[in-house]
Amino acid sequence: MSIVSAGSRCGVLLVNTGTPAEPRPRAVRAYLARFLMDKRIAPMNRVAWWFILHLFILPKRGRASGEKYAKIWTDEGSPFTVAHEKLESGLNASLQEEGFDVMVRCAMSYSDPTVRRCVKQMKAAGCTRLVVLPLYPQSAYSTTGSVSDSVEHALKKTRWKVPCDFIDNYHDHVTYIRAIAASIEHAGFQIESDDRLLFSYHSIPLVDIEAGDTYELQTGASSLQIASELGLDRNRWTIGYQCQFDKGREWLKPFSRDTLARWAEANVGRVFYVCPNFAVDCLETLYDIEYELKPFYFDHIRQAGRTPDSDSFVYVPCLDRSRAHLRVLSDVLRPHIEEANHG
């Protein structure tokens, strides 16, 4: 049991990208406008980009993305929102059971609840220290950097001068590595077989890497450590990237889609598809993989003259609201919370 110092309440802020309020074009457009106008996301001058985005992109993409979101929506609402609500309550309970005086909140960069609202709540609750954990195991200029911007802005707007620990990444944390490896085995991956493993990460513009972004190094390190935890030979796994936003810039490759096409032609056996940098399943996993990438892979198997089995392609779900995910987050956060509670 941890001994909590008087007056040492710690605010723990988890931050992820966000989700539309509902799967309707208007709500989707509002969400995408906030997301795509972020200075770290916009591909050009913000004034020119605003006109292009609002006049040409959002009207079409709002409808198309709305239809996609409708496919993954549940009776509880957005699966992304539900998962974060469960993580928030579960992590609060878990850390408090350890004896820590904490207030855990999940905020979204581009939807509700906002970073500013959560920061304001923590200030009002009397937190004396803030620990921020972006839910991106591998940090990137466009994700973790954006969270840093939002937190800095929120602290300034709420006039809260509080000690703040910002956890940049946890790509090589041992609990995270073991949790991803265990999720792959739980999905049915067999070490002594010809199963192949595709680590698929969100792609980023090459210009960010050229500017010093270490994301590619972190995705490589995570993949190598997870494969080592599984005891896999190098020829059993590879790395791919998905979800490039536009065609006007060069994006980090190889694309996962190209790898799937090559593997379908080569008849490599069962493919296990895992996304280690998505902490929670979202549109890019729940829709893109099930409705686009899996059919794409099966189509290429047919083109190669074979009939795909139902288990030829296996998606490994994200850690989501699982106990394993709570253990990962607790272990990543604990050293910072201990310092806050005893500092």
UniProtKB/TrEMBL annotation:
It comes from Paraeggerthella hongkongensis. It catalyses: Fe-coproporphyrin III + 2 H(+) = coproporphyrin III + Fe(2+). CDD domains: Ferrochelatase_C, Ferrochelatase_N. It comes from the Bacteria. It is found in: Cytoplasm. Its EC number is 4.99.1.9. This is Coproporphyrin III ferrochelatase. Keywords: Cytoplasm, Heme biosynthesis, Iron, Lyase, Metal-binding, Porphyrin biosynthesis. The keyword Transport does not apply. Pathway: Porphyrin-containing compound metabolism; protoheme biosynthesis. Involved in coproporphyrin-dependent heme b biosynthesis. Catalyzes the insertion of ferrous iron into coproporphyrin III to form Fe-coproporphyrin III. InterPro entries: Ferrochelatase (IPR001015), Ferrochelatase_AS (IPR019772), Ferrochelatase_C (IPR033644), Ferrochelatase_N (IPR033659). GO terms for cellular component: cytoplasm. The gene is hemH. It holds the Pfam family Ferrochelatase. One of its GO terms (molecular function) is ferrochelatase activity.
